[in-house]
Amino acid sequence: MSGETEIQNLKSRDPFAEADEDSGQTTQTQEYIHIRIQQRNGRKTLTTVQGIPSKFDHKKILKVIKKTFACNGTIISDTESKGMGEVIQLQGDHRSKIRDFLIDAEEGLGLDEKTIKVHGF
């Protein structure tokens, strides 16, 4: 055995970085918007939206979402979300409605559909 044996398992790799389709290499350059659902107690759920670009006013977005979807919500700041940026948190399961709102150019933000990832059960 040679002295320059390389152990593959110990390479640092970001498991949340998306794999590039062409080369299989992971890239962190493109910013994605993540829509997740979290189970609270019983049938209660929370929908979180992370990664909305900072060029948009998060407070105004939250105000429109709350009025349109008839739910309550809050903005979790950078310090509370442990480096994930500002996260919009809504009461209830609104994953599909939030996705449609972010894509809609007339009444929503008009973002690219490819940058939105919906997670959950």
TrEMBL record:
Record region (Disordered): 1-31
Swiss-Prot/TrEMBL GO biological process terms: regulation of translation
GO MF annotation terms: translation initiation factor activity
Pfam families: SUI1
SUPFAM superfamilies: eIF1-like (SSF55159)
UniProt-listed InterPro entries: SUI1, SUI1_dom_sf, SUI1_euk
Cross-referenced CDD domains: eIF1_SUI1
Domain SUI1 positions: 33-106
UniProt superkingdom: Eukaryota
Biased composition (Polar residues): 1-10
Keywords, comma-separated and alphabetical: Initiation factor, Protein biosynthesis, Translation regulation
Protein family per UniProt: Belongs to the SUI1 family.
Stated role: Additional factor that functions in concert with eIF-2 and the initiator tRNA in directing the ribosome to the proper start site of translation.
Protein name (record): Translation initiation factor SUI1
Species in which this protein is naturally found: Corynascus novoguineensis
